[in-house]
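User: My collaborator sent over this chain with a note saying "see what the structure looks like." That's all I know about it. Can you take a look?
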Amino acid sequence: MEVILAEHLGFCYGVKRAIEIARENASPDGTSSTLGPIIHNPQMVERLKEEGVGTVSTLDEMQKGTVIIRSHGVGPSVYAQAEQRGLDLVDATCPHVKKAQLSAKQLSEEGYTVVIIGEKNHPEVKSIFEWTAQRAHIIESEEEAAALPTFGKLGVVCQTTFSSNRFRHIASVLLDKSRDIKILRTICTATDMRQSAAIELAGRVDAMIVVGGKNSANTTRLAQLCSEKCQTYHIETADELQSDWLNHVNKIGITAGASTPDWIIKEVFKQCQSRA
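Assistant: Without extra context I'll predict from the sequence alone. Here is the result:
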């Protein structure tokens, strides 16, 4: 059996940057915490905890110390709350997410009704929504786009990890919703590269292993895209690999989400090779 890694997989720039920032601000006395998990990978979050970076759900859990804004970003009210509480704030928001936030804010301030294309419950999308003073519409399907009324001025931004193909289809529906429309394609290049590489590899293997957090939107999307091409398994760690997945398989591909650490990818690769 041949084991093939996707050309582009694993940590993106924004995730690497967020983890480096978290590590630089680690505190052995437990006074440094990220607001929500720094990235959507439980194993990396646990490792950072061991290194002195905890996790809190709300600022109410912190009386002092350093709060680290995770890669998904937050709304402007969180910055104000942290200042009011006298907390040291370190911003690890992914630069691509920050661009989407500020683009949405500018469109809103210019009088455009903002539509965010993305998953309603994803923390990144929630943060972008906050930057429009909570006035944006959030949609994630062509049907939801078609159901929107027409607008005098319409501005469109997108979750940075959204499917490029789905974005194009939804945006094409929105073109009929206003005569004055600005569509800002805020999907990051790393997402494009990982999705394209995964689809290409899935088209020439018998099965795909997609490695990454089950709570990771971009990893789940990779699994969905690969499953359209071949048998696909989404796992978080090598421990989840099952021998019968590899039976009668001549070629197996491996890809990983943007929040999946290198050491986990290597473990999965080695496990697959050992069973080849």
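A starting point for your reply to your collaborator: The chain has three domains: 2-10+190-275, 13-92, 96-187.
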